[in-house]
């Protein structure tokens, strides 16, 4: 019997209240994250780096019940979790969170449905086979995970179903395995973001024949605790950023460096109003910026003219800091710390076509640039789980074990030259077709230009803490553009490039140009952090 245990990095003493206490109260349910597993079955026993492996959680505390089994790709270190649950120990406390009903929160299934088996039944031996069982819940209950066995149907007491009002809608996330008609997905809550209450159980979904639009037979859990007691308090937020705050490295050839917002205002940034050609100086705290409303085009921020314009575009690294927005994720079982960095100017792009590099004149440049990364912290343990790297119109989540670090637990963020997109490793990343080597370059490298967010930061928002706990700066309420809109015929510049290329490349390059984001075909300042979809919603990806 082999047990596998996931080892974590050393953690500081974060625990207090419900954060990093090992257990979370979801209302009528109390849950624990299990990260120790016992092997059940693998889809590829010959090649250990291919396929997926299915595990049973072990080391379950007394009184807690399995909700489903765990699956992970074989090409990654074993690092994951499933939740186990029990009814909240105090029914009087649970009554504060939701309307009490007579039926228990957890019940055994009535039976199992065999969802798939690796053996078609034609062979006498079942050795090495995998059987996938979907619990059939009693009326008014939901299944939240599958069980996997290497032989017979599991006993009914091996899993629990959850009362329907304590669950939320679940969706397929990433394909983990696809073989013939059998597919396995990781799952995640459908309702996510700062206001979402869906809780990921860590289980997988599988189906023998995928039908588009078919709703999953599984649900996730739902956090009905309005206080979100598992979230960090203000002191714990500061402890987390001091411990995990990443260092942002800018390219050694970067011209357009970051600055603080206050430095930008102090050094000549102007507020313009539609129909008025003269800009108004902006107060150092942004108190004279119009707040609220929407991006209606009535106001925008621009740079001053003359030599002052040239100076302010270069930024001021000494004043630069990260602006923190802290919010619940996955129903308050994780904490997202979005770190926003400001640059007064976004430089023009460089086009790569094979071995040729062509510096573009205006394409890609615009006044002001807001970029961010997001640290996702596990509220059970206080562990850094992953980081989201924002990259132009998209981004990617990177697991903590895949990151580079400095000073122990502080991840390294590489900011691309001119465009300031964020990447987890140095190198050249192509926005276009990396296979053909055609597209916009994103060059990342270490340098002496860096900002350490663990010491250079300001907490600007954490709505879940309540009114008045975090004083939001005036500029955060400015919902219009941080930069003017300038339309020019960038396509003419790109067409000139296409015409001087070898004929065999022209068609491919033209097709890639057609797929580049429209933001490259004119200058348009970005909106501020609070106007972005991910301020309230989940990150893309």
TrEMBL record:
InterPro entries (alphabetical): Vps62
Organism name: Gossypium gossypioides (Mexican cotton)
Domain of life, source organism: Eukaryota
Protein name: Vacuolar protein sorting-associated protein 62
